[in-house]
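Backbone-to-sequence.
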């Protein structure tokens, strides 16, 4: 497996990551045992970066990744996303209260105290011009709930 440094994190992540959308089960029937076997196989093949979101199976994929962490001792990284729970999905919904609520839910699903990497999930363009959103993200790092 080839590894690359991810931004300023200092992490050496696999050039190929595991996208956990499908194991959430939203787009068809999946078996959790088969999903966990696929996650183990990915680690066995050198994948150490997993991408998920709080809405993939309403948190199911995050919970499966938490199980992988319990079952495997080696270090790997999980990127999750927040924001798509908003209904309607509008820039005004990217408030401190909503973002903290989404992150707290992901922390519970992932059985961790800090999210490795948090991404905004397809935010409306206006969000990029809302400094308060980035302030909330900084506050989550300060609070120890988000590593990056």
């Amino acid at each position: 497996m080839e590894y690359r440094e991810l931004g300023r994190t200092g992490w050496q992540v696999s050039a190929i990551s595991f996208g956990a959308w499908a194991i959430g089960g939203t787009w068809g029937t999946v078996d959790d045992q088969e999903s966990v076997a696929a996650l183990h196989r990915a680690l066995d093949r050198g994948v150490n970066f997993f991408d998920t979101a709080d809405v993939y199976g309403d948190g199911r994929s995050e919970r499966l990744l938490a199980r992988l962490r319990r079952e495997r001792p080696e270090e790997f990284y999980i990127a999750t996303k927040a924001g798509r729970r908003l209904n309607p999905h509008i820039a005004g919904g990217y408030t401190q209260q909503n973002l903290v609520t989404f992150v707290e839910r992901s922390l519970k699903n992932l059985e961790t105290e800090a999210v490795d990497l948090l991404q905004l999930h397809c935010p409306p363009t206006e969000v990029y011009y809302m400094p308060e959103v980035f302030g909330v993200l900084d506050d989550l790092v300060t609070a120890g709930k988000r590593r990056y």
